[in-house]
Amino acid sequence: MSYGGEGMHEASQPGLFEDVWAQVLALLAIVSGMFSAHYLVTRGYVPKTAPLPIAEKATQFKTTVKTALSAPTPRMPGHWVVDAGGGPDADTSTLGAALSGAKDGDTFTIKPGIYREGLFINRAVTLQGAGQTPDQVEIISAGAQTIGLSTGRAALRNLSITNTGNREQWVVVAAKARLVLDKVRMRSAGQGVRCVDSDLDVADSDLDARITLSVEGKSKVRVQRSRLSGEQTAVAASGGGADVTLSDSRVQDSRGTGVDASRFARVRVTDSTISGNSSAAVLALSGAEVRVTGGSIRDNRDCAVRLDGSLVVLEKVSVTKNRCGAGFLGPATLEANGSTFSDLTLGPLAIKPGLEDVVTVRGSGNQGFDIPAKR
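The structure assignment produced for this chain is given below.
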């Protein structure tokens, strides 16, 4: 009995090897935990917080939505309606109010009516008349100018503009700007459009003023499919940076000169008609260069061309029913190629006495005009 009891007692005790392995496993667990913690810390691991209760999640969501709705949203270029009659779909009844909050790229649709206000534009905007014809939307002012444009870009389409002030007031003044006149009608007893160091595009328009279009400084002007007339002159370009192109247009019925170029300005007239002017169709002075290609110069009360200290080139132009073809006021150069000269009261050339030796006439292939031999 005593033997059996001793055996049972010894079996219930842990063996030496079992105790050692337990200690080894515990040590390995501790070391493994230390390495794991070090790895997570060095990798920037941040333990997740406990999930929010449902009620707290709902409160947090409402706060986020409220903040988003109250935050200002950047306004994109818009489309606004201006109606002098205050129609139900109008954003405003005056152009001045509309332009005061204008952003670059905005378009203003103008309902038919009369808008008696002067405008200043320094943004990139479009004023679009909503009438069937330009006459149905009228912008009228008696101030220094009806529309002033500075360092901006503006397009005026399908509308009428005028100035009812004194004869020195302008309808439009563009300074260091970009202007488009498309299907615009302008009538004014004062000045018309003044373009200073600016770009101007005129298309399908009818413009009439004292000086209808004045181009100064470093300006580029392009006129297409339009009619221009003026009390003093239709187009006046002055300065070495002035560059004017007229194509498929009519410069007619001015009470003075059709095209007046001076001080090294450049004017090119292509496939156009210069007619019915009370003075010369083209006046080129002081280093100006005028080139007329195609089209006609006709029915002007004075000479087709008057020139002094300048160059005028006529290429395939019909010069007819004028007082003379070219009248020299001083030393200058006329070049005529493939042009036709007919029905001229004083003949193709009218040279002021004493200038015969200081004028230059050259060219070839003309009809009704023989280039005089140089003495």
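Interim note for the steering committee: Helices lie at 2-11, 16-42, 54-70, 95-100. The chain has two domains: 2-70, 103-364.
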